[in-house]
Amino acid sequence: MLILGIETSSSQVGCALGGHEGILAYTATNRGQRHAELLVPAVQFTCRSARVELREIGAVAVGLGPGLFTGLRVGIATAKAMAMALRVPMIGIPSLDLLAFRVRFTNRLIVVATDARRGELFHAWYRASPGGVQRVTPHQVGSPEDVASDIEASGEDVLLVGDGALRYQELFASVRHLEVADGGLAHPSAGALVQLAHAQALREEFVGPGEVRPIYLRKPDAEIHWVERSRVVGGAP
Fold first, then answer.
1. Class of domain 2-94+187-222
2. DSSP at 181
3. How many helices (H) and strands (E) does the chain have?
4. What is the rounded CA–CA span in Å between residue 47 and residue 126?
5. What are the backbone dihedrals phi and psi of residue 80, each rounded to the nearest 5 degrees, phi first?
6. How far is the C-alpha of 237 from the C-alpha of 220, rounded, in Å?
7. CA 25 to CA 37: how far, in whole Å?
8. In terms of Cα–Cα distance, which of 70, 163, 68, 81 is closest to 118?
9. What is the pLDDT of residues 37-64, one digit of tens each?
10. What does DSSP assign to residue 4?
11. Domain 96-185, what fold?
């Protein structure tokens, strides 16, 4: 089965095609908040690179977040539309899991931290397990200082991965027993998405487009700003 993977939870737009033969083609571009403009051309380019027609795709996988609201919404909406048009099932995988999966061969505790903007991080903790990783905490959103404090308090050797780790690298540099992963691992990978989705496809763990739900850990910035503005206006004399 050929699986199309779409991952847009960060500033990067990623697409991949693969199946039992591995990853056939992969595209990633990072050009700011232009997900709606870049995603469909990226899918088309990936298909051309793999010499695959859309009608040959057997399932659509998508990163569920947590992540930046606009990109996440664009990616999931596009993935759902394609799955419905092609009449194929879907597989949804949390985006932080994709980052942890790429460093699954470490013997350290894995902490994934991605930039949530507004001075916060989306984060979760993982341990390597046979064939992959196991998440040992819920998905959370919090300050970089709180994440650094929790890592310090754990007393364990930690591998920190994600663009949030790079953004606040100076803060994390003071934490003992902590290593920050390479910048090439900063964003969730559509290739990892296809790999994990293929394993689920073999177990026939599919869902319909209507069952795919994004992981939002807070309200969109626009809604937050509107509420704050309403409070200011409402509280004015």
1. alpha beta
2. P
3. 8, 11
4. 33
5. -65, -45
6. 28
7. 20
8. 68
9. 999 999 999 999 999 999 999 999 999 9
10. E
11. Nucleotidyltransferase; domain 5 (3.30.420)
